[in-house]
Amino acid sequence: GHHVVAVVDPDAKAARRLARQSDAREVFTSVEAALAETAFDRAHVLVPPELHSEAALPVLAAGKPVLLEQPLAASGEACDALIAAAAQSGAALGVNQGFVHHSAFVRLQRLVQRQELGRPVMVFCLRNVPPAELAKRPRDNLLLEYALHPLTQMAALAGAIDKVRAFAGPLLELGPAQTFPSPLDMALTCEALPARLRLA
């Protein structure tokens, strides 16, 4: 029952392309322009985490609900600003955790709950990221980009995460003055099962 009425992107060509795909009637290159010129009742923010607050704050200030992709923001200060803006305007602020609703994951969750694969004793997730993909992403948000969705899925299977211990492997050079430990292992103490996440 929802319809996309406008697309906002600083890249007008990209905005027009997405507007055609989603049957949106209007295209804008800034959130402020969209707020001034079109009637929309809510916004779905689909930008990198470091841009979440910049894109969402004006919409919240206008009293319109906002759904952000995970994570809420890239820093504690930005999260606090978003929460304060939502509280001040009364607009709803939500975070989409779409990977827990993926059909393959929902099926796995049912199999685990019914113990159709046997009695679960641990949740283990291996997330391999090709170096070519890393080159496209901001270097300071690698954990936000690649660890949050697996952690959300692991918590759905193993229960709330209580403690995390991290073990860093050798540093992998990603670019000039940019390194990341590979693998990065995280041992998780969760409510129902122990869990381990390996990023490599």
* C-alpha end-to-end distance: 41 Å
Q: What is the helix tally?
A: 8
Widest beta sheet: strand line-up: 6-11-10-7
Residue ranges: pLDDT <50 for 5 or more in a row?
none
- Judged by helices, strands and strand pairing, the structural class is alpha/beta
Write down the Rg.
Answer: 20 Å
Instruction: Tell me, rounded to a whole number, the average pLDDT.
Output: 90
Largest sheet data: 4 strands, mixed
Shape: globular
Taken in chain order, the helices and strands follow as: EHEHEHEHEHEHHHEEEEE
Percent of sequence in beta strands: 25-35%
Strand element count: 11
**Helix share, percent:** 25-40%
Topology, element by element:
Layout: E1 6-8, H1 12-22, E2 26-28, H2 31-37, E3 43-45, H3 52-61, E4 66-69, H4 76-89, E5 93-96, H5 103-113, E6 123-127, H6 131-134, H7 142-146, H8 148-158, E7 161-168, E8 171-175, E9 178-181, E10 184-190, E11 194-199
Parallel strand pairs: 1-2, 3-4, 4-5, 6-11
Antiparallel strand pairs: 7-10, 8-9, 10-11
Helix pairs in contact: 3-4
Features:
200 residues; 11 strands; alpha/beta; globular; 8 helices
3D structure, described in words:
By secondary structure, this protein is an alpha/beta fold. The chain is built from eight helices and eleven strands. It has a four-stranded mixed beta sheet with strand order 6-11-10-7, with helices on one face. α4 links the parallel β4 and β5 (93-96). It is globular and about 55 Å long.
Task: Write a concise synopsis of the structure shown.
The protein is an alpha/beta fold and 200 residues long. It has helices at residues 12-22, 31-37, 52-61, 76-89, 103-113, 131-134, 142-146, 148-158; strands at 6-8, 26-28, 43-45, 66-69, 93-96, 123-127, 161-168, 171-175, 178-181, 184-190, 194-199. Helix 3 (52-61) runs parallel beside helix 4 (76-89).
